[in-house]
Amino acid sequence: MEIQPDHINQALFQYADFLHNQFGVQTLADYSAYFYRAAEPGQTSQNKTYQLHTLKEDETLARLATGIQRFKLPDDANYIRIYQEIAANKHQYDPEKAVNTLAEIFENRRQYDRAAEFWRRSIKEFGPGSDHYKQKKLDQILGHWGQFEPIMAQAAGKPATIEYRFRNGRHIRFTAHAILVPKLLGDVKQYLKSNPANLDWDKMNIEDIGYRLVTKKQNQYIGAKAAEWSLDLQPAQGHFDKRITVQTPLKKPGAYLLTGRMQDGNTSQIMIWLHDTVIVKKPLNQGTFLFTADAVNGRPLADMQMEFFGYQQKPTDWQKVVGRQYNVITTHFSRFSDPQGQLILGPKDLNEQWQWIITAQNKSGRLAYLGFSNIWYAGYYEQQYSQVKVFTITDRPVYRPNQTVKQGTSYTREKNFSNRSRLERLVIIRSDQLFRCRCADPQGITRQSIQSRSRREL
Protein backbone atom coordinates (compact mmCIF):
# COMPACT_ATOMS: atom_id res chain seq x y z
CA MET A 1 0.00 0.00 0.00
CA GLU A 2 2.99 2.30 0.54
CA ILE A 3 4.23 1.69 -3.01
CA GLN A 4 0.79 2.19 -4.58
CA PRO A 5 -1.32 4.25 -2.15
CA ASP A 6 -4.07 4.60 -4.75
CA HIS A 7 -4.71 0.86 -4.32
CA ILE A 8 -5.35 1.05 -0.58
CA ASN A 9 -9.08 0.41 -0.90
CA GLN A 10 -8.52 -2.60 -3.13
CA ALA A 11 -6.10 -4.19 -0.64
CA LEU A 12 -8.39 -3.41 2.29
CA PHE A 13 -11.33 -4.93 0.39
CA GLN A 14 -9.52 -8.24 -0.04
CA TYR A 15 -8.60 -8.32 3.63
CA ALA A 16 -12.12 -7.34 4.80
CA ASP A 17 -13.74 -9.93 2.54
CA PHE A 18 -11.47 -12.61 3.99
CA LEU A 19 -12.35 -11.64 7.57
CA HIS A 20 -16.03 -11.42 6.72
CA ASN A 21 -16.02 -14.89 5.17
CA GLN A 22 -14.30 -16.32 8.24
CA PHE A 23 -16.12 -14.51 11.07
CA GLY A 24 -19.39 -13.16 9.64
CA VAL A 25 -22.76 -14.26 10.94
CA GLN A 26 -23.51 -15.81 7.55
CA THR A 27 -21.34 -18.75 8.68
CA LEU A 28 -24.43 -19.77 10.71
CA ALA A 29 -26.45 -20.39 7.54
CA ASP A 30 -26.74 -24.10 8.37
CA TYR A 31 -28.57 -23.06 11.55
CA SER A 32 -30.94 -20.64 9.81
CA ALA A 33 -34.06 -22.21 11.32
CA TYR A 34 -32.78 -21.31 14.79
CA PHE A 35 -32.25 -17.68 13.82
CA TYR A 36 -35.57 -17.36 11.95
CA ARG A 37 -36.57 -13.74 11.39
CA ALA A 38 -40.10 -14.26 12.75
CA ALA A 39 -38.68 -14.49 16.28
CA GLU A 40 -39.13 -11.18 18.06
CA PRO A 41 -36.44 -9.35 20.03
CA GLY A 42 -38.49 -9.61 23.22
CA GLN A 43 -38.59 -13.37 23.29
CA THR A 44 -37.00 -14.78 26.43
CA SER A 45 -36.71 -18.38 25.27
CA GLN A 46 -33.66 -17.60 23.15
CA ASN A 47 -30.30 -17.30 24.91
CA LYS A 48 -28.92 -13.76 24.61
CA THR A 49 -25.68 -15.23 23.31
CA TYR A 50 -27.41 -16.12 20.08
CA GLN A 51 -29.51 -12.97 19.63
CA LEU A 52 -27.98 -11.42 16.53
CA HIS A 53 -29.66 -8.06 16.94
CA THR A 54 -27.82 -7.47 20.25
CA LEU A 55 -24.37 -7.65 18.65
CA LYS A 56 -22.20 -4.57 18.89
CA GLU A 57 -20.21 -3.44 15.87
CA ASP A 58 -17.03 -4.87 17.37
CA GLU A 59 -18.72 -8.22 18.14
CA THR A 60 -19.69 -11.16 16.00
CA LEU A 61 -21.33 -14.55 16.24
CA ALA A 62 -19.72 -17.14 14.01
CA ARG A 63 -19.23 -20.85 13.55
CA LEU A 64 -15.64 -21.73 14.37
CA ALA A 65 -13.80 -25.02 14.59
CA THR A 66 -14.82 -25.09 18.26
CA GLY A 67 -18.49 -24.51 17.47
CA ILE A 68 -20.72 -21.43 17.52
CA GLN A 69 -18.99 -18.65 19.44
CA ARG A 70 -19.82 -15.04 20.29
CA PHE A 71 -16.67 -12.97 20.67
CA LYS A 72 -15.21 -9.50 20.31
CA LEU A 73 -13.24 -8.62 17.20
CA PRO A 74 -9.87 -6.88 17.58
CA ASP A 75 -9.54 -3.66 15.60
CA ASP A 76 -7.25 -5.18 12.99
CA ALA A 77 -9.78 -8.02 12.38
CA ASN A 78 -12.98 -5.94 12.60
CA TYR A 79 -14.29 -6.26 9.06
CA ILE A 80 -17.14 -3.78 9.75
CA ARG A 81 -14.65 -1.07 10.70
CA ILE A 82 -12.56 -1.82 7.62
CA TYR A 83 -15.56 -1.63 5.28
CA GLN A 84 -16.51 1.70 6.86
CA GLU A 85 -12.98 2.96 6.23
CA ILE A 86 -13.26 1.94 2.56
CA ALA A 87 -16.66 3.63 2.23
CA ALA A 88 -15.28 6.86 3.70
CA ASN A 89 -12.56 7.06 1.03
CA LYS A 90 -14.80 7.97 -1.92
CA HIS A 91 -12.01 8.70 -4.35
CA GLN A 92 -10.59 5.20 -4.48
CA TYR A 93 -11.69 1.66 -5.29
CA ASP A 94 -15.48 1.02 -5.21
CA PRO A 95 -16.80 2.78 -2.08
CA GLU A 96 -20.34 2.00 -3.28
CA LYS A 97 -19.67 -1.73 -2.93
CA ALA A 98 -18.43 -1.16 0.62
CA VAL A 99 -21.62 0.71 1.60
CA ASN A 100 -23.83 -1.99 0.05
CA THR A 101 -21.83 -4.70 1.80
CA LEU A 102 -22.32 -2.95 5.14
CA ALA A 103 -26.08 -2.77 4.51
CA GLU A 104 -26.18 -6.51 3.80
CA ILE A 105 -24.05 -7.29 6.85
CA PHE A 106 -26.47 -5.47 9.15
CA GLU A 107 -29.40 -7.21 7.46
CA ASN A 108 -27.78 -10.54 8.28
CA ARG A 109 -27.23 -9.38 11.84
CA ARG A 110 -30.96 -8.53 12.03
CA GLN A 111 -30.12 -4.91 12.84
CA TYR A 112 -32.55 -3.53 10.32
CA ASP A 113 -32.49 0.13 11.38
CA ARG A 114 -28.74 0.21 10.81
CA ALA A 115 -29.12 -1.58 7.47
CA ALA A 116 -31.71 0.99 6.37
CA GLU A 117 -29.22 3.79 7.14
CA PHE A 118 -26.64 2.33 4.76
CA TRP A 119 -29.21 1.70 1.99
CA ARG A 120 -30.31 5.35 2.27
CA ARG A 121 -26.69 6.47 2.14
CA SER A 122 -25.99 4.31 -0.91
CA ILE A 123 -29.03 5.70 -2.73
CA LYS A 124 -28.11 9.27 -1.85
CA GLU A 125 -24.42 9.03 -2.79
CA PHE A 126 -24.45 6.54 -5.66
CA GLY A 127 -28.04 6.38 -6.98
CA PRO A 128 -30.85 3.80 -6.74
CA GLY A 129 -28.99 1.15 -8.76
CA SER A 130 -30.15 -1.06 -11.60
CA ASP A 131 -33.92 -1.49 -11.63
CA HIS A 132 -34.00 0.49 -8.36
CA TYR A 133 -32.82 -2.57 -6.44
CA LYS A 134 -31.54 -0.45 -3.55
CA GLN A 135 -34.92 1.18 -3.04
CA LYS A 136 -36.55 -2.26 -3.15
CA LYS A 137 -34.12 -3.46 -0.47
CA LEU A 138 -35.02 -0.43 1.65
CA ASP A 139 -38.73 -1.00 1.11
CA GLN A 140 -38.35 -4.61 2.31
CA ILE A 141 -37.15 -3.23 5.63
CA LEU A 142 -39.40 -0.20 6.07
CA GLY A 143 -42.49 -1.13 4.07
CA HIS A 144 -45.75 -2.56 5.37
CA TRP A 145 -45.73 -6.24 4.51
CA GLY A 146 -47.87 -9.23 5.35
CA GLN A 147 -48.51 -12.77 4.21
CA PHE A 148 -50.59 -15.78 5.22
CA GLU A 149 -48.80 -18.79 6.60
CA PRO A 150 -49.67 -22.23 5.14
CA ILE A 151 -52.61 -23.89 6.86
CA MET A 152 -54.36 -27.24 6.69
CA ALA A 153 -58.03 -27.90 6.01
CA GLN A 154 -60.27 -27.36 9.03
CA ALA A 155 -63.54 -28.80 10.26
CA ALA A 156 -66.66 -26.77 9.63
CA GLY A 157 -69.02 -25.62 12.38
CA LYS A 158 -66.67 -23.33 14.28
CA PRO A 159 -64.79 -20.17 13.22
CA ALA A 160 -61.79 -20.97 11.07
CA THR A 161 -58.41 -19.61 12.13
CA ILE A 162 -55.45 -18.52 10.04
CA GLU A 163 -51.84 -17.59 10.75
CA TYR A 164 -50.72 -14.18 9.48
CA ARG A 165 -47.14 -12.87 9.51
CA PHE A 166 -46.55 -9.15 9.05
CA ARG A 167 -43.96 -6.41 9.37
CA ASN A 168 -44.46 -2.71 10.24
CA GLY A 169 -48.15 -2.61 9.25
CA ARG A 170 -50.82 -1.36 11.66
CA HIS A 171 -54.12 -2.13 9.93
CA ILE A 172 -55.38 -4.84 7.59
CA ARG A 173 -58.68 -5.58 5.89
CA PHE A 174 -59.81 -9.14 5.13
CA THR A 175 -62.29 -10.21 2.46
CA ALA A 176 -63.49 -13.79 1.92
CA HIS A 177 -65.27 -15.06 -1.20
CA ALA A 178 -66.87 -18.47 -1.59
CA ILE A 179 -65.43 -20.75 -4.25
CA LEU A 180 -67.83 -22.49 -6.64
CA VAL A 181 -66.37 -25.98 -6.22
CA PRO A 182 -69.27 -27.87 -7.92
CA LYS A 183 -68.97 -25.62 -10.98
CA LEU A 184 -65.23 -26.18 -11.15
CA LEU A 185 -65.62 -29.98 -10.92
CA GLY A 186 -68.34 -29.90 -13.56
CA ASP A 187 -66.20 -27.85 -15.95
CA VAL A 188 -63.29 -30.27 -15.53
CA LYS A 189 -65.52 -33.21 -16.42
CA GLN A 190 -66.99 -31.43 -19.42
CA TYR A 191 -63.52 -30.52 -20.63
CA LEU A 192 -62.40 -34.15 -20.51
CA LYS A 193 -65.60 -35.33 -22.20
CA SER A 194 -64.84 -32.97 -25.10
CA ASN A 195 -61.85 -35.18 -26.01
CA PRO A 196 -59.23 -32.40 -26.32
CA ALA A 197 -56.34 -33.06 -28.66
CA ASN A 198 -53.85 -31.89 -26.01
CA LEU A 199 -54.66 -31.87 -22.32
CA ASP A 200 -54.33 -28.46 -20.68
CA TRP A 201 -53.43 -28.98 -17.03
CA ASP A 202 -54.64 -25.48 -16.14
CA LYS A 203 -58.16 -26.57 -17.10
CA MET A 204 -58.17 -29.83 -15.13
CA ASN A 205 -56.11 -28.98 -12.04
CA ILE A 206 -58.44 -29.56 -9.07
CA GLU A 207 -55.71 -30.10 -6.48
CA ASP A 208 -54.45 -26.50 -6.48
CA ILE A 209 -57.51 -24.33 -6.99
CA GLY A 210 -55.82 -21.32 -5.41
CA TYR A 211 -53.20 -21.33 -8.16
CA ARG A 212 -55.93 -21.25 -10.81
CA LEU A 213 -57.74 -18.39 -9.10
CA VAL A 214 -54.78 -16.18 -8.20
CA THR A 215 -52.17 -16.90 -10.88
CA LYS A 216 -54.35 -17.88 -13.83
CA LYS A 217 -57.10 -15.36 -12.98
CA GLN A 218 -59.92 -17.88 -13.43
CA ASN A 219 -62.38 -15.61 -11.66
CA GLN A 220 -65.43 -17.45 -12.98
CA TYR A 221 -65.14 -19.77 -9.97
CA ILE A 222 -65.20 -16.96 -7.40
CA GLY A 223 -68.65 -16.66 -5.87
CA ALA A 224 -70.33 -14.16 -3.60
CA LYS A 225 -68.62 -12.34 -0.77
CA ALA A 226 -68.87 -14.48 2.37
CA ALA A 227 -67.31 -12.17 4.97
CA GLU A 228 -65.43 -8.93 5.37
CA TRP A 229 -63.73 -7.50 8.45
CA SER A 230 -60.72 -5.46 9.52
CA LEU A 231 -58.11 -5.76 12.24
CA ASP A 232 -55.74 -3.34 13.98
CA LEU A 233 -52.18 -4.61 14.28
CA GLN A 234 -49.35 -3.99 16.71
CA PRO A 235 -46.08 -4.51 14.81
CA ALA A 236 -42.89 -5.67 16.47
CA GLN A 237 -40.14 -3.16 17.10
CA GLY A 238 -37.00 -2.99 15.01
CA HIS A 239 -38.80 -3.98 11.78
CA PHE A 240 -39.06 -7.59 12.95
CA ASP A 241 -41.73 -9.96 11.69
CA LYS A 242 -44.65 -10.83 13.93
CA ARG A 243 -47.05 -13.72 13.56
CA ILE A 244 -50.59 -13.70 14.90
CA THR A 245 -53.56 -16.06 14.83
CA VAL A 246 -56.62 -14.49 13.24
CA GLN A 247 -60.07 -15.87 13.95
CA THR A 248 -62.37 -15.56 10.96
CA PRO A 249 -66.18 -15.50 10.90
CA LEU A 250 -66.19 -18.41 8.42
CA LYS A 251 -68.06 -21.47 9.74
CA LYS A 252 -70.03 -22.97 6.85
CA PRO A 253 -68.47 -25.88 4.92
CA GLY A 254 -66.87 -25.03 1.60
CA ALA A 255 -63.82 -23.41 0.06
CA TYR A 256 -63.03 -19.72 0.44
CA LEU A 257 -60.53 -17.35 -1.13
CA LEU A 258 -59.33 -15.04 1.64
CA THR A 259 -57.66 -11.77 0.68
CA GLY A 260 -55.72 -9.63 3.15
CA ARG A 261 -54.96 -6.02 2.13
CA MET A 262 -52.41 -4.29 4.34
CA GLN A 263 -52.98 -0.55 4.70
CA ASP A 264 -50.26 1.21 2.67
CA GLY A 265 -48.81 -2.21 1.96
CA ASN A 266 -49.15 -5.37 -0.06
CA THR A 267 -51.96 -7.86 -0.68
CA SER A 268 -51.84 -11.55 0.20
CA GLN A 269 -54.28 -14.37 -0.59
CA ILE A 270 -54.89 -17.90 0.64
CA MET A 271 -57.40 -20.72 0.23
CA ILE A 272 -59.36 -21.88 3.29
CA TRP A 273 -61.09 -25.27 3.24
CA LEU A 274 -63.83 -26.02 5.79
CA HIS A 275 -64.96 -29.64 5.60
CA ASP A 276 -68.10 -31.25 6.96
CA THR A 277 -67.52 -34.53 5.08
CA VAL A 278 -64.42 -36.60 4.39
CA ILE A 279 -63.67 -39.56 2.14
CA VAL A 280 -61.17 -42.22 3.18
CA LYS A 281 -59.75 -44.50 0.48
CA LYS A 282 -57.75 -47.65 1.20
CA PRO A 283 -56.60 -50.45 -1.12
CA LEU A 284 -57.75 -53.98 -0.27
CA ASN A 285 -56.99 -57.41 -1.66
CA GLN A 286 -58.28 -56.94 -5.20
CA GLY A 287 -60.57 -54.17 -4.05
CA THR A 288 -60.87 -50.54 -2.96
CA PHE A 289 -62.39 -49.55 0.38
CA LEU A 290 -64.16 -46.18 0.60
CA PHE A 291 -65.49 -44.67 3.80
CA THR A 292 -67.49 -41.45 4.16
CA ALA A 293 -67.71 -39.80 7.55
CA ASP A 294 -68.52 -36.56 9.32
CA ALA A 295 -65.39 -34.39 9.37
CA VAL A 296 -66.03 -33.20 12.93
CA ASN A 297 -66.85 -36.35 14.89
CA GLY A 298 -66.04 -39.19 12.47
CA ARG A 299 -69.63 -40.47 12.41
CA PRO A 300 -70.27 -42.73 9.39
CA LEU A 301 -72.55 -41.24 6.75
CA ALA A 302 -75.05 -43.64 5.21
CA ASP A 303 -76.65 -43.31 1.76
CA MET A 304 -74.02 -40.92 0.44
CA GLN A 305 -74.07 -40.85 -3.34
CA MET A 306 -70.56 -41.74 -4.49
CA GLU A 307 -69.92 -40.58 -8.04
CA PHE A 308 -66.93 -41.91 -9.95
CA PHE A 309 -65.67 -40.06 -13.01
CA GLY A 310 -62.66 -41.49 -14.80
CA TYR A 311 -60.63 -40.69 -17.86
CA GLN A 312 -57.97 -42.47 -19.86
CA GLN A 313 -55.73 -41.52 -22.77
CA LYS A 314 -55.59 -44.04 -25.59
CA PRO A 315 -53.09 -43.61 -28.44
CA THR A 316 -54.41 -43.22 -31.95
CA ASP A 317 -53.12 -44.49 -35.27
CA TRP A 318 -51.09 -41.41 -36.11
CA GLN A 319 -50.80 -42.48 -39.75
CA LYS A 320 -54.58 -42.23 -40.15
CA VAL A 321 -55.39 -39.45 -37.69
CA VAL A 322 -53.45 -36.26 -38.44
CA GLY A 323 -52.78 -33.86 -35.56
CA ARG A 324 -53.97 -36.17 -32.77
CA GLN A 325 -51.78 -38.60 -30.90
CA TYR A 326 -54.38 -39.89 -28.46
CA ASN A 327 -58.08 -39.82 -27.58
CA VAL A 328 -59.46 -39.03 -24.14
CA ILE A 329 -61.96 -41.70 -23.05
CA THR A 330 -64.24 -41.03 -20.09
CA THR A 331 -66.58 -43.12 -17.96
CA HIS A 332 -68.99 -42.38 -15.15
CA PHE A 333 -71.02 -44.35 -12.60
CA SER A 334 -72.36 -43.91 -9.08
CA ARG A 335 -72.97 -46.01 -5.98
CA PHE A 336 -74.36 -45.40 -2.46
CA SER A 337 -72.59 -45.98 0.84
CA ASP A 338 -74.03 -48.59 3.21
CA PRO A 339 -75.38 -47.82 6.72
CA GLN A 340 -71.81 -47.87 8.03
CA GLY A 341 -70.70 -45.31 5.44
CA GLN A 342 -68.69 -47.93 3.57
CA LEU A 343 -68.37 -48.92 -0.05
CA ILE A 344 -66.13 -51.63 -1.51
CA LEU A 345 -65.44 -51.79 -5.24
CA GLY A 346 -63.39 -54.22 -7.28
CA PRO A 347 -61.27 -54.02 -10.44
CA LYS A 348 -64.34 -54.41 -12.65
CA ASP A 349 -65.67 -51.08 -11.38
CA LEU A 350 -62.47 -49.10 -10.73
CA ASN A 351 -59.90 -49.86 -13.38
CA GLU A 352 -56.26 -49.24 -12.49
CA GLN A 353 -55.61 -47.79 -15.93
CA TRP A 354 -57.93 -44.82 -15.34
CA GLN A 355 -57.61 -41.59 -13.38
CA TRP A 356 -60.60 -41.00 -11.10
CA ILE A 357 -62.48 -38.13 -9.48
CA ILE A 358 -64.50 -39.50 -6.55
CA THR A 359 -67.30 -37.28 -5.27
CA ALA A 360 -69.53 -37.89 -2.25
CA GLN A 361 -72.71 -35.85 -1.76
CA ASN A 362 -76.26 -36.10 -0.48
CA LYS A 363 -79.49 -34.14 -0.55
CA SER A 364 -78.65 -32.17 2.59
CA GLY A 365 -75.79 -30.43 0.79
CA ARG A 366 -72.77 -32.36 1.99
CA LEU A 367 -69.91 -32.50 -0.53
CA ALA A 368 -66.45 -34.01 -0.55
CA TYR A 369 -64.17 -35.16 -3.35
CA LEU A 370 -60.89 -36.92 -4.08
CA GLY A 371 -59.04 -36.46 -7.29
CA PHE A 372 -57.47 -37.02 -9.51
CA SER A 373 -56.73 -40.34 -7.81
CA ASN A 374 -54.84 -43.45 -8.87
CA ILE A 375 -56.28 -46.85 -8.07
CA TRP A 376 -54.11 -49.82 -7.21
CA TYR A 377 -54.94 -53.16 -5.69
CA ALA A 378 -52.87 -54.78 -2.98
CA GLY A 379 -52.27 -58.54 -3.07
CA TYR A 380 -52.07 -60.70 0.04
CA TYR A 381 -49.12 -63.05 0.37
CA GLU A 382 -50.80 -66.22 1.58
CA GLN A 383 -47.56 -68.02 2.29
CA GLN A 384 -46.50 -65.33 4.72
CA TYR A 385 -49.88 -64.71 6.31
CA SER A 386 -50.59 -68.43 6.80
CA GLN A 387 -47.43 -69.11 8.78
CA VAL A 388 -47.81 -70.67 12.22
CA LYS A 389 -46.57 -68.57 15.13
CA VAL A 390 -45.85 -69.88 18.64
CA PHE A 391 -45.58 -67.42 21.54
CA THR A 392 -44.31 -68.54 24.96
CA ILE A 393 -44.56 -66.55 28.20
CA THR A 394 -42.89 -67.54 31.48
CA ASP A 395 -43.62 -66.24 34.96
CA ARG A 396 -40.08 -64.89 35.38
CA PRO A 397 -37.02 -64.31 33.19
CA VAL A 398 -34.45 -66.17 35.35
CA TYR A 399 -34.80 -69.17 37.67
CA ARG A 400 -32.73 -70.49 40.57
CA PRO A 401 -32.00 -74.20 40.88
CA ASN A 402 -34.95 -76.34 42.00
CA GLN A 403 -37.48 -73.56 41.19
CA THR A 404 -40.60 -74.39 39.18
CA VAL A 405 -40.77 -72.98 35.65
CA LYS A 406 -44.33 -71.93 34.82
CA GLN A 407 -45.03 -71.11 31.23
CA GLY A 408 -47.87 -70.60 28.81
CA THR A 409 -47.60 -71.23 25.09
CA SER A 410 -49.99 -69.89 22.45
CA TYR A 411 -50.34 -71.18 18.89
CA THR A 412 -51.70 -68.81 16.25
CA ARG A 413 -51.76 -68.07 12.55
CA GLU A 414 -50.54 -64.69 11.35
CA LYS A 415 -53.35 -64.44 8.79
CA ASN A 416 -56.04 -63.63 11.34
CA PHE A 417 -54.19 -63.86 14.66
CA SER A 418 -56.68 -66.51 15.75
CA ASN A 419 -55.96 -69.10 18.48
CA ARG A 420 -58.92 -71.30 17.61
CA SER A 421 -56.89 -73.93 15.76
CA ARG A 422 -55.59 -76.18 18.53
CA LEU A 423 -51.97 -77.23 18.75
CA GLU A 424 -51.86 -80.99 18.47
CA ARG A 425 -48.47 -81.44 20.13
CA LEU A 426 -46.04 -79.13 21.89
CA VAL A 427 -42.44 -80.22 22.21
CA ILE A 428 -40.18 -78.55 24.80
CA ILE A 429 -36.45 -79.26 24.65
CA ARG A 430 -34.49 -78.92 27.88
CA SER A 431 -30.93 -80.11 27.65
CA ASP A 432 -31.18 -83.87 27.08
CA GLN A 433 -34.89 -84.22 27.89
CA LEU A 434 -38.02 -83.84 25.82
CA PHE A 435 -41.35 -82.80 27.31
CA ARG A 436 -44.50 -83.39 25.31
CA CYS A 437 -48.04 -82.30 26.03
CA ARG A 438 -51.32 -81.86 24.21
CA CYS A 439 -53.29 -78.67 24.04
CA ALA A 440 -56.73 -79.17 25.50
CA ASP A 441 -57.45 -75.43 25.73
CA PRO A 442 -60.02 -74.36 23.07
CA GLN A 443 -58.02 -71.17 22.64
CA GLY A 444 -54.90 -73.08 21.63
CA ILE A 445 -53.03 -72.31 24.87
CA THR A 446 -51.09 -74.82 26.90
CA ARG A 447 -49.87 -74.25 30.45
CA GLN A 448 -46.85 -76.24 31.62
CA SER A 449 -44.81 -76.46 34.85
CA ILE A 450 -41.26 -77.85 34.74
CA GLN A 451 -39.02 -78.39 37.75
CA SER A 452 -35.57 -76.90 37.18
CA ARG A 453 -32.57 -79.00 38.13
CA SER A 454 -30.21 -78.36 41.02
CA ARG A 455 -27.35 -77.74 38.62
CA ARG A 456 -26.96 -75.23 35.82
CA GLU A 457 -27.90 -76.31 32.31
CA LEU A 458 -27.23 -74.90 28.88
Task: Please tell me about this protein's structure.
The protein has 458 residues and is α+β, with helices and mostly antiparallel strands. It folds into four domains: 138 residues, Serine Threonine Protein Phosphatase 5, Tetratricopeptide repeat (Alpha Horseshoe); 107 residues, Immunoglobulin-like; 97 residues, Sandwich (Immunoglobulin-like), CATH 2.60.40; 69 residues, no CATH class. The chain is 20% helix and 35% strand. The chain contains nine helices and 22 strands. The strands form seven sheets. The chain has a five-stranded mixed β-sheet. A four-stranded antiparallel β-sheet has the order 14-13-16-17, with helices on one face. Helix 1 packs antiparallel against helix 2 and helix 4 packs antiparallel against helix 5. The protein is extended, with a radius of gyration of 35 Å. The termini are far apart.
